[in-house]
Design goal:
The chain is built from no helices and twelve strands. With about 140 residues, it is mainly β. It is globular.
C-alpha cells in the first residue's frame, strides 16, 4: 500500500527549464515512485512557448492563469483560464503565451515515465532533465 503525501507548493524545488520557463514538479517519480501519473505546474514568460514536441504518454494541461494558444497537430486554439486540453501520446503540440502576464499551466501525464521528443528529432529525452530544455530551438 502506498503512503499519501501532502505537497506544499512553496516548499517544492523549482526547476529553471530554459527560456525563462520555471517548472514546479509535484507528483513525480522522485516524490511518488510508481504513481500512475506525473504532475506539475509551469510558468512561461510573456511571448514564450515550449518548442513543438510530443510525448510517450497522454497529457492533460489546464491553463491556470494568463492567455494562451495551443497548437495540436497544426490546429491552433485560444485558451482562457481553466480551459483544459487532452493531448494523446505521440501528437505534436505546444503552448504559447499570447498575453502580457505569465502563462501558468498545470500538466498531468498519464504515466510515471514521461519522455519528450522535439519536432524534427527522433531522440527521446527524459522529462525534466537538462536535455528536456524548453529554451527556443534554432
Amino acid at each position: 500500500m502506498s503512503e499519501s503525501v501532502v505537497l506544499k507548493f512553496d516548499e517544492v524545488e523549482k526547476l529553471e527549464r530554459g527560456g525563462g520557463v520555471v517548472s514546479t514538479p509535484l507528483v513525480v517519480p522522485s516524490v511518488r515512485p510508481n504513481a500512475a501519473f506525473t504532475t506539475g505546474i509551469s510558468s512561461f514568460p510573456a511571448g514564450s512557448s515550449a518548442p513543438m514536441h510530443k510525448h510517450n504518454c497522454d497529457e492533460q494541461v489546464t491553463l491556470l492563469s494568463g492567455e494562451a494558444e495551443v497548437d495540436i497537430e497544426g490546429k491552433r486554439t485560444r485558451l482562457k483560464a481553466y480551459d483544459s486540453t487532452y493531448v494523446a501520446a505521440g501528437k505534436e503540440h505546444y503552448f504559447l503565451n499570447v498575453g502580457d502576464e505569465p502563462m501558468v499551466i498545470l500538466w498531468i501525464y498519464g504515466s510515471d515515465h514521461v519522455t519528450r521528443t522535439f519536432a524534427g528529432s527522433d531522440v527521446e529525452v527524459a522529462h525534466l532533465t537538462a536535455e528536456d530544455s524548453l529554451a527556443p530551438r534554432d
